[in-house]
Amino acid sequence: MTTLTLGLAQIKTKLGDVRANLDKHLAYIEQAAAQGVQLLIFPELSLTGYVLQDLVPVVALRPTADDPAFAKLLDASRRIDLMIGFAHEDTRHRFFIAAAYLSQGRVLHVHHKVYLPTYGMFDEGRFFAPGDSIRAFDTPWGRAGMLICEDFWHASPPYLLWLDGADILLMQSASPGRGLDDREQLDSSRWVEHVNQAYASLFTNFVAHTNKVGFEDGLNFWGGSTVFDPNGELIARAPHFEESLTLAAIDLDQLHRTRARLPILRDERTALTLRELSRIAQKD
Amino acid sequence: MTNLSDRLRINADLARKILVSFLRDEITRAGLSRAVIGLSGGIDSALSCALAVEALGAQNVLAVRMPYKTSSPQSMADAQLVIEKFNVPNLVVEITPMVDPLFDHFPDADGKRRGNAMARARMIVLYDQSSAFNGLVIGTGNKTEILLGYSTIFGDAASALNPLGDLYKTQVRQLAAAVGVPQSIIDKPPTADLWAGQTDEGELGFTYERVDQLLYLIVDQRYSRDEAVAAGFEPSFVDRVLAAVRRNQFKRMPPIVAKLSNRTVGYDFLYLRDWGT
User: Fold this and answer.
1) φ/ψ (deg, to 5) at A243
2) Domains along chain B with CATH numbers
3) Which domains does chain A have, with CATH numbers?
4) Are the beta carbons of B272 and A215 separated by less than 8 Å?
5) B157 vs B151: CA distance, rounded Å
6) What count of Cα atoms within 13 Å lies in the side-chain half-sphere of residue A206?
7) Closest CB to B18 among A51, A177, A217
8) From the list B9, B10, B270, which residue is nearest A53 (CB)?
9) Nearest chain B CA: its distance from A8 CA (Å)
10) What global pTM score does this model have?
11) Disulfide-capable partner of B122 in A105, B30, B66, B228 (CB 3.0 to 4.6 Å)?
12) How is B56-100 classified by DSSP, letter by letter?
């Protein structure tokens, strides 16, 4: 059995204080490594906090060894693989909401959030540039893909990662809780859990999601991080609203068993999809 | 469509958990551990008090009663019930000697001016106690009164944190029952207690239950005026409520700054209050 022990680092952040947030990352990494975690996933913008507004240019980083925060994280990644959330300033000084996968002292992949919600309570498009690619990448645990919050409110990014070979979808969020009615969970948390479960079921994939907790002004972040297996079964769920390190030992051989039973990936007709997409795009 | 009053029902445990964490988190990150609340004897301030006690511990919540000479003794007694129920430190500060000199100066001032002056005198007392007790002033305004503008700007509308601002009055009643606010306070007719026999619903001309349902459709569900009428609300009632919501937008905003420079507070100098914490 090939087991990967995932850790979901469901943390509170200090708004705009990279040094304090870095210290918290390092403490969680220490704790996770001691418990045998092999890949630790932090929430969206975990190094900075979420509602940054005019703090974006102040807290943005480059994910390289000459950045003091990333130097420490890259060093820590020699012990344990990491998925970090940060604000990325590229060489042309554009700012992105970004996720970096670190392993063995190297940056294996950086994903820029493609879909920036700029409606209702959200204003990301005002402060950030949108990413322009969705790519899977190889990790020591198989091929994976990273998405950030609104990216997976759209069906296409997880679908593209699946077709690009990702068997493990790594999602991170800073999802504000909203939609209180008489049910057990807020609308937003119910919705996110539904779609994560749906992607695991539809793609016969592992789907791990880490959300942040705490408050930024009146916004509550609900946590409730989850891992679903290729059968769409819930493997782990972190508590709602509380900081936690939640472990999930995933059996990577489950991919073999599920896909032997349910060959959705084998039967997926990528060329047909592409043909129809081209036709639809031309119509626009 | 489900019955509208059912759609306004909330999971009180979930609301309580979020609001208690909100108060604790936001007060402690400001470097404080205490709260100050003006207790009127009504349900809103009783609920804010209960949530603050759960967040901070009773000894860290100062309840202040601020009667005017014409205030109903029943309001004082109801506030006393809350003080005893939640066992909080408390103060009585009469506002009569604060506001009567103003009323003596303007003997013709109508009830509205007098009510606003009393609300602002209470704000002065609470913010003074905020400094003396080293605690943040906790708001008691609910979503219904914020939307309708049924409050005094820089008076009862003033606070550092408001746990109730996204709950309609009927939802406040539900949560108040769940956190143990005395039943007699939940059941009594809401009143600003500015004159004998005054009730909110008498003054507004409609019930909270009805206006909450309408506001829920218009604000939360984004119904148009005509859709609200089609849903069974009197056109004149809908128009009156829509006008009140629009007319009172000024009470929901900080003072507007006239823009001159390239970077102006309120327009393009954008930070949360939690900046750096």
Assistant:
1) -60, 140
2) 4-201 (3.40.50.620)
3) 3-283 (3.60.110.10)
4) no
5) 6
6) 28
7) A177
8) B270
9) 22
10) 0.95
11) B66
12) H-GGGEEEEE---TTS-HHHHHHHHHHHHHHT--EEE---HHHHH
Burial string for B146-161 (b: 16+ CB within 10 Å, else e) reads bbbbbbbbebbbbbbb
How does DSSP assign A2-25, residue by residue?
A: -EEEEEEEE----TT-HHHHHHHH
> Distance between CA atoms of B234 and A223, rounded to whole angstroms?
42
> Quick one: which of A157, A172, A131, A134 has its CA closest to A44?
A172
What are the structure tokens assigned to A205, written together?
Answer: 């994939």
Residue with tokens 């004159």: B195
What is the pLDDT tens value at each position of chain A, 284 positions in all?
799 999 999 999 999 999 999 999 999 999 999 999 999 999 999 999 999 999 999 999 999 999 999 999 999 999 999 999 999 999 999 999 999 999 999 999 999 999 999 999 999 999 999 999 999 999 999 999 999 999 999 999 999 999 999 999 999 999 999 999 999 999 999 999 999 999 999 999 999 999 999 999 999 999 999 999 999 999 999 999 999 999 999 999 999 999 999 999 999 999 999 999 999 999 86
Question: CB-based burial of residue A266 (10 Å sphere; 0-12 exposed, 13-18 middle, 19+ buried)?
Answer: exposed
Interface TM-score (ipTM) > 0.90? yes
Listed residue (B128, B37, B129, B133) closest to B86, CA to CA: B37
Rg of chain B over all Cα atoms, to the nearest angstrom: 19
Q: Which two structure tokens, joined as six digits, stand for A135? A: 């790519």
Interchain pair A183, B11: CB under 8 A: yes
Query: Looking at this protein, which amino acid is placed at residue B70?
Result: T
- The closest CB to that of B277, out of A15, A51, A181, belongs to A15
User: Phi then psi for A95, rounded to 5 degrees?
Assistant: -110, 130
